[in-house]
Write a structure and sequence with these properties.
CATH superfamily of the largest domain: Aminohydrolase, N-terminal nucleophile (Ntn) domain
Strand order of the largest sheet: 3-2-4-1-10-9-11
Bound molecules: 5-amino-5-deoxy-1-O-phosphono-D-mannitol
Strand content: 15-25%
Oligomer: single chain
Largest sheet: 7 strands, antiparallel
CATH architecture of the largest domain: 4-Layer Sandwich
Number of domains: 3
């Protein structure tokens, strides 16, 4: 949800800002802009579209500047609404949402001030000018005290040409020291060259000047611990792959292998083992793909450990006054660790007395500051907006947790160890989706069906297809089709049926027959070859056998590939789907 960057130092700022913005583009790409201070004034270059549209921006001269890549919330994607925004002596970039910007804007307009954009962010520049009495940090403090909502802010003032000011509340912000200057950014890879990194917490401020970064909290100046430094593998590179999404799919076997946990064998999980022993009820809270991993986890945990699990979309959980009983464990699942709804839901679960375990792929993310315990999926950084390997990694970790919980109840559990090698096999088979994808091209809509654990795969397959191919699509429990959706099936409608649960196979096949009888084309993803050979099946993908409860970790791979190849066939950029961003830090 927007990426911000800042640099002040001995070298030219513009090339550094542009490089950082490129690395932040996964957060939004509706517009981009930079502002650099030179010759007593700010030079600003901003455009609608991606960072690559900022032709000529690299020529802006000056050693201090800020930049922004936008995911539009208030105001259309346009040059007028692009950041940086300026007023009076101030220029700024903002990530977040100012919920009370309308009354604040009216207040400024009543003073006769004119606004240029339709954004919520511009009002911050107006307030800064209003509150400035010669001390910029005080002006920033007074300004943010008026704001409701979330912000990561980078501010420059014309009177202090080489100083950067930063402030944070509920939007991530990192600052760092490099060899040749000081940086700030929404995320670590944007400033990977730094040799010292610090993560700002909510309510903190930083002032970057000369060789020094000074930090301030509510009470005054504070000291901060440095973060772990970035390794080269944290810097996103596509390598030989045409897209990050394809590269990340090929990293699935490693993501699974690295995210499996043997809870009993490692002393560092002793706290979590104690929690598991006391767990009587589980609430999983997450959004999007992470929510789907929660559904698969529910099937596995209930079957293996016989502990009841409720899975709720975080944006619903946070507003529905959930019941948290004694012995409730809340699992907050978030690849980015920054999803605003998941953070709020985790906070609420904690407030109501649940023990909260965060499951995230992002060390130092905001969710790690909320949860009692953190479990890291080790998928490696994921850049493509459509989640792939992080989903498989979440499943690996959640299934590990399911088996650990089952063991605390004295129950037998199947092994997870074969999964990485099996995923490797599935990746090869999934390439067949390149030939199958054209079947979807003329479709008005595409349906995904499955029963039991396969239902989760159907939901995730459908979400992947929607977000990168823009084809209307729905995922259903196979048994639900006949309760309404069957009316939408006509000649040639593609239906992707997932079938990996032997005991439910006949039942799912009933839905396949019903689709076939109405002219629909069934693409079957199964580990049961006898069904693939049926005349009602138009095309099939064969999966290796694995423990049925764990099958979504494999069966989703061909569906990820189907979405990828359909997106390409429709001429889309699978890494950067329209209207979306990787990290949803707004409500
Ligand atoms: O970072 P999170 O796991 O919290 O993100 C949740 C969703 O925004 C995310 O899974 C989204 O649905 C993906 N674009 C799906 O591919």
């Amino acid at each position: 949800m927007c990426g911000i960057i800042g640099y002040t130092g001995k070298e030219q700022a513009a090339p550094k800002l542009l490089l950082g913005l490129k690395r932040l583009e996964y957060r939004g790409y509706d517009s981009a802009g930079i502002a650099v201070f030179s010759d007593g004034k700010f030079s600003v270059c901003k455009r609608k579209g991606r960072v690559s549209e900022l032709g000529g921006a690299e020529k802006l001269r000056g050693g201090c500047g800020i930049g922004h890549t936008r995911w539009a919330t208030h105001g259309a994607p346009s040059e007028r609404n692009a950041h940086p925004h300026s007023f009076g002596r101030f220029v700024l970039v903002h990530n977040g949402i100012i919920e009370n910007y309308l009354p604040l804007k009216e207040e400024c307009e009543a003073r006769g001030e004119k606004f240029i954009s339709e954004t919520d962010s511009e009002v911050i520049a107006h307030l800064l000018e209003y509150y400035d009495r010669g001390d910029v940090l005080s002006a920033i403090k007074e300004t943010v005290a008026r704001l409701k909502g979330s912000y990561a802010l980078a501010v420059m003032c014309r009177d202090e040409p080489n100083v950067l000011y930063a402030a944070r509340r509920k939007s991530p912000l990192i600052v760092g020291k490099g060899e040749e200057g000081l940086y700030l950014a929404s995320d670590v890879p944007a400033i990977a060259e730094c040799r010292e990194l610090y993560s700002l917490c909510d309510g903190e401020f930083a002032v970057l000047q000369g060789d020094n970064i000074r930090f301030y909290g509510e009470e005054g100046e504070i000291k901060k611990e440095t973060m772990k430094l970035v390794s080269k593998s944290d810097i996103p590179e596509k390598g030989a792959y045409p897209h990050f999404m394809l590269k990340e799919m090929h990293e699935i076997p490693a993501a699974i292998a690295n995210s499996l946990i043997n809870f009993e064998d490692d002393f560092c999980f002793s706290g979590i083992n104690i929690v598991l022993c006391q767990t009587e009820y589980i609430q999983i809270i997450a959004c999007g793909t992470a929510y789907h991993s929660g559904i698969a986890a529910k099937y596995a945990i209930e079957a293996l450990a016989r502990v009841p699990v409720e899975v709720t979309v975080a944006s619903e959980y946070r507003y529905r006054d959930p019941i948290v009983k004694k012995g409730t464990l809340a699992l907050a699942v978030s690849q980015s660790g920054e999803t605003a709804d998941t953070l709020a839901a985790a906070e609420l679960a904690k407030e109501k007395g649940a023990t909260v375990i965060a499951i995230t792929n992002a060390p130092d993310s905001s969710i790690t500051q909320i949860a009692h315990f953190v479990l890291f999926t080790r998928a490696g950084r994921e850049i493509a907006v459509a989640a792939t390997k992080s989903f498989n990694a979440q499943l690996a970790l959640l299934f590990s947790l399911a088996t650990a919980l089952a063991k605390t109840k004295g129950r037998q559990t199947p092994s997870l160890r074969p999964l990485p090698a099996l995923a490797e096999e599935v990746l090869t088979e999934a390439e067949k989706m390149k030939e199958i994808a054209p079947i979807l091209l003329g479709a008005k809509s595409v349906y995904f069906i499955g029963r039991g654990a396969d239902y989760c795969t159907a939901l995730e397959g459908s979400l992947k297809l929607k977000e990168i191919s823009y084809l209307p699509s729905e995922g259903y429990p196979a048994g639900e089709l006949k309760h309404g959706t069957l009316a939408l099936i006509d000649e040639g409608t593609p239906v992707i049926a997932v079938l990996t649960q032997e005991g439910l196979a006949e039942k799912t096949m009933n839905a396949v027959f019903e689709v076939y009888a109405r002219g629909g084309r069934v693409i079957l993803v199964t580990n049961l070859p006898e069904y693939a050979a049926r005349k009602e099946v138009y095309r099939s993908i064969l999966l290796p056998k694995c423990e049925e409860l764990f099958s979504p970790i494999l069966s989703v791979i061909p569906l990820q590939a189907l979405a990828y190849y359909t997106s390409l066939a429709r001429g889309n950029d699978p890494d950067k789907p329209r209207n979306l961003a990787k990290s949803v830090t707004v409500e």
